Amino acid sequence: MGFQDVKKISIRDVAALAGVSVGSASRVLNNAPNVTEDVRVKVERAVSVLQYRPNHAAQSLRSQTSKTIGCLFSDVSNPLYARAFRALEGCFRPDGYMLLLSNGLNDPEREIEILRTFQLRGMDGVIIAPGNERHAEVLDAVNRLSMPVVIYDRDMAVDCDAILLDHFNGVKTAVKHLISLGHQRIGIALWHGHSRPVRRRLAGYKAAFRELGLDVPNLIMQEATSTSSVFEDMMQTLRSDEPPTAMIVQGTYTLISALRAISRMGLRVPADISVIALGDTEFAQTYDPPLTALRTPIEQIAQKARLLLLERINGRRGNDDADHIGTAPTKELIPYEFIVRESCAPPGGAG
After folding, report:
1. Phi, psi of 305 (to 5 degrees)
2. How far apart are CA 279 and CA 282, in angstroms?
3. CDD domains per the record (predicted)?
4. Would residue 59 count as lying in a domain?
5. pLDDT digits (tens, 9 = 90+) for 54-80
6. Is-contact 131 104, C-beta < 8 A?
């Protein structure tokens, strides 16, 4: 069958060959749940024989939906966002949605441009984690969006649904775990910045000591702007008169640099210094020894984002979930999973 022939095939041809109604064929092609397995098999066989390719542009015009979700992340080189996007794609694919990923690069002008592009292209909904959550023009651009929005782990002064990670209690749990092992000189290495994750982690770190009546140690590393500066800051901290006996370190790149400094100083994990990773990456899992970590439940977050966004989308289109439209924004607080491995021990190898 030639290319010109393929383009002329319609859904009516598929339905005729399958021996079903056009409506049944359409439900199969749109992954509708109310289809028998027998009908689904017949339609899929007819699609294969006829080499039928749906005209998505025409479908969008008829249904007034683009079947596209826009995703704006602050920096897609962050492994966490790569994992999040992969999980989101897996959640939305069965519903027939395609995700468009945009990289904000922590640049407010770029983020504003992306948000405006989402609006112009008629996305059905958007999921955003911008790097400039308090920037007035970024907030204005979000407020101007006419489609449903789900915010991922940002404190933004906008009336949108949000999924927030519980960094406060996650880091507090990590600190108290180390204190239970006998540590008090516990350091924390966070990336330079004022985003919600950084603010809440720092607050949880301080709260853990104060709740136990302990002084907060002067071991907060928060000035790093590059992996090289993380290394230098860590080296300086380890050379101090009162170096940490344990460290809590965020992210993959910060963690790698911190561990490189620990190794350069001739220290062993956990015999000389305990380490907890903020983020359970493949690196944390395969490091020798495997690192105790706070794991982000990415699949749970993706499913929550799908549920919140589709409820709003369906409500806007006047489907069965129309009562969701106009309801107050939902704020979902998701706890970390604390994974204990082999990177923590009592200070100085005691115990």
Report:
1. -60, -40
2. 10
3. HTH_LacI, PBP1_LacI-like
4. no
5. 665 555 555 567 899 999 999 998 889
6. yes
Q: Provide, for the chain, the percentages of residues in helix, strand and coil under a 3-state DSSP scheme, each rounded to the nearest 5.
A: 50, 15, 35
Residue entry with tokens 């449903």: 148
Element (H, E) at 110: helix 108-120
C-alpha 262/C-alpha 221 separation (Å) is 15
Question: What are the E-state strand segments in the chain?
Answer: 68-73, 98-103, 125-129, 149-152, 161-165, 186-191, 220-224, 246-250, 274-278, 292-295, 331-334, 337-339
Q: CA-CA distance, 118 to 331, in Å (whole number)?
A: 23
| CA distance to 50, 97, 285, 304, per residue, from 321 (Å) | 36, 18, 42, 16
Element (H, E) at 116: helix 108-120
CA separation (Å) from 66 to 29, 31, 147, 291? 16, 16, 11, 43
Whether residues 144 and 172 fall in one domain: no
Q: Among residues 163, 111, 103, 152, which one has the least CA distance to residue 132?
A: 111
Q: How many CB atoms lie within 10 A of CB 123?
A: 25
The whole domain housing 29 covers 11-54
Phi and psi at 221, nearest 5°, equal: -105, 110
> Is 16 a member of any domain?
yes
Q: Do 159 and 303 sit in the same domain of this protein?
A: yes
What's the pLDDT tens digit per position in 283-323? 999 999 999 999 999 999 999 999 999 999 988 533 344 44
Whether the CA torsion 259, 285, 201, 134 is positive or negative: it is positive
262 in the same domain as 193: yes
Q: Do both 302 and 292 map to the same domain?
A: no
Q: Are residue 135 and residue 207 in the same domain, yes or no?
A: no
pTM, 2 dp: 0.80
Domain match, 171 and 292 both = yes
pLDDT digits 0-9 by tens, 320-336: 444 444 588 999 999 99
The CATH number for 187's domain is 3.40.50.2300
- Per the domain annotation, does 343 fall within a domain? no
Residue type, 20: V
Q: 104 lies in a domain?
A: yes
Domain count, the chain: 3
211, 285: one domain: yes
Q: Chain-centre distance of CA 28, in angstroms?
A: 31
